TrEMBL record:
Keyword rRNA processing in annotation: no
Keywords from the named record: Oxidoreductase
Homology family: Belongs to the short-chain dehydrogenases/reductases (SDR) family.
Organism: Glycine soja (Wild soybean)
Any Pfam family hit: adh_short
Keyword Cytoplasm: no
Name recorded for this polypeptide: Short-chain dehydrogenase TIC 32, chloroplastic isoform A
InterPro entries: NAD(P)-bd_dom_sf, SDR_fam
Amino acid sequence: MKATLRYLAGLAGPSGFGSNSTAEQVTEDCCSLLPSNLTALITGATSGIGAETARVLAKRGVRVVIGARDLRKAKEVREKIQKESPHAEVILLEIDLSSFASVQRFCSEFLALELPLNILINNAGMYSQNLEFSEEKIEMTFATNYLGHFLLTKMLLEKIIDTAKKTGIQGRIINVSSVIHSWVKRSCFSFNDMLCGKNYNGTRAYAQSKLATILHVKEVARQLKERNANVTINAVHPGIVKTGIIRAHKGLITDSLFFIASKLLKSISQGASTTCYVALSGQTDGMSGKYFTDCNESNCSSLANDESEARKLWNDTHALLHKRLRQATN
């Protein structure tokens, strides 16, 4: 109840920021302290909080690489960014996160640029009311929101670790999750069922994919600590934001309820604040395996905190990718 009241009132937490804080506000003080030549890679930055994250990071002098399925939209975002920040460096690369082949191709193209990689923001997400499948015959929401980002992170992890080692600047990985991860019951969280979309329900599939992104954070954080790597990984809940995903949900509730709920929604700038805070703030140095809401560390569900579940999911995912990628090369 206290957290809800704090959210509604926009009260600041220990970080000095709260639900009303915008992405520009949370990065304003740290921009003068940022190292030069930082490079951030952001997926799904053609609209919504992804585009706002890209804009604000570029405004703070960060080189931004946008991974996008729609390059036409990505070019429009780049034009807007460079109109506001003429010296901003924005690089566009095509990626379809639901396709393993596309993720592999994207990583090859990015690594060929021989750029450093300081920040990886796994932001892209989709919601589908209807059961759809990727080209690998995997349920589309799970393939896009979780599996694609898992593979992307896996293929770029050594680059992030190496950049941190060479520069002495801590690398940061951020998975954009959602508070609705807490809706998932342990009995409904089955890897094989999620792959095939068994008893499909769009909201449940979305919640499951967002739970998986937090469990991914927990296990990778453990592995990074074990390696003594100077890289952190955290999950963020942006808040309930006025984006395309919310519009996709609208058909599930009455217009009157949507009108009431819309008054509690964050703006896109407020929604991008937690991602930008965790990406750039000195206050998050050394913090890893955490879950952030409204620019403050928060609590995720007990299932999302289950280390054995996180390790099991990582092992199942790694085995699946190894099998599918090996088949693709034969």
